[in-house]
């Protein structure tokens, strides 16, 4: 993988460890795999980020960071991967997770209720409480589907990084061999 490109955008591990709000976690942030850009650490970071990113609510990056520390995979990649879930992708993720849950649970899951929010009459401050109430009404069906979707995306992300990294290395080696053959008289 293009390490120089990733290193340019990822924070330096000493900067993160020395951050005034993270000094208490310094012993947890010592493992080298949390910061190294190798195939397994990055692939594991993507998997941790996929799982953390599909947790509803504001704790996605924290969950991805905890998973990265527990499994000793690349921490910045795990946190950055949670950005896959954003306001543009959440509706598709919610519907997909619910559909997977409904497919697995059958009729026990019930039907998805509509999110009813009157944008003209209700104040904006009521949006998040109404959204959480709607999300909780999805219940087991959404939770089962979200768990399956998170696991599937984590496995797919892990495999994609492993395969992509390997293909990049093979292309680089082939290009280097071709260059070496052209340089020899």
How would you describe this structure to a colleague?
This protein has 185 residues and is mainly α. It has one domain. It is built from seven helices and no strands. It has helices spanning 3-9, 13-17, 39-53, 60-71, 75-81, 90-105, 127-183. α4 (60-71) packs antiparallel against α5 (75-81). The radius of gyration is 21 Å and the shape is elongated.
Question: How large is the count of helical segments?
Answer: 7
Helix content: 55-70%
The best one-word shape is elongated
Largest sheet: none
Number of strands: 0
**Radius of gyration from CA coordinates:** 21 Å
Structural class: mainly alpha
Low-pLDDT stretches: none
User: Terminal Cα separation, in Å?
Assistant: 31 Å
Tally of structural domains: 1
Which strand-content bin applies to the residues? under 5%
Mean pLDDT score, rounded? 81
Order of helices and strands: HHHHHHH
Structure characteristics:
mainly alpha; 185 residues; single chain; 7 helices
Q: Briefly, what is this?
A:
The protein has helices spanning 3-9, 13-17, 39-53, 60-71, 75-81, 90-105, 127-183. The protein is mostly helical. It starts with a helix and ends with a helix.
């Amino acid at each position: 993988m293009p390490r120089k490109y990733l290193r340019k955008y990822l924070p330096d591990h000493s900067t993160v460890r020395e951050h005034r709000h993270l000094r208490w976690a310094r012993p947890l942030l010592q493992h080298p795999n949390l910061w190294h850009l190798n195939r397994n650490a990055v692939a594991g970071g993507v998997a941790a980020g996929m799982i953390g990113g599909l947790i509803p609510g504001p704790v996605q990056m924290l969950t991805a960071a905890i998973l990265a520390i527990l499994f000793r995979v690349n921490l910045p990649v795990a946190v950055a991967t949670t950005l896959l879930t954003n306001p543009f992708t959440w509706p598709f993720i919610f519907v997909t997770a619910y559909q997977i849950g409904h497919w697995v649970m059958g009729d026990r899951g019930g039907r998805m209720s509509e999110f009813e929010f009157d944008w003209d009459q209700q104040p904006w401050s009521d949006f998040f409480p109404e959204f959480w109430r709607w999300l909780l009404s999805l219940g087991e069906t959404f939770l089962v589907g979200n768990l399956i979707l998170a696991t599937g995306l984590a496995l797919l992300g892990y495999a994609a990084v492993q395969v992509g990294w390997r293909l990049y290395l093979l292309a680089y080696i082939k290009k280097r061999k071709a260059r070496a053959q052209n340089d020899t008289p």
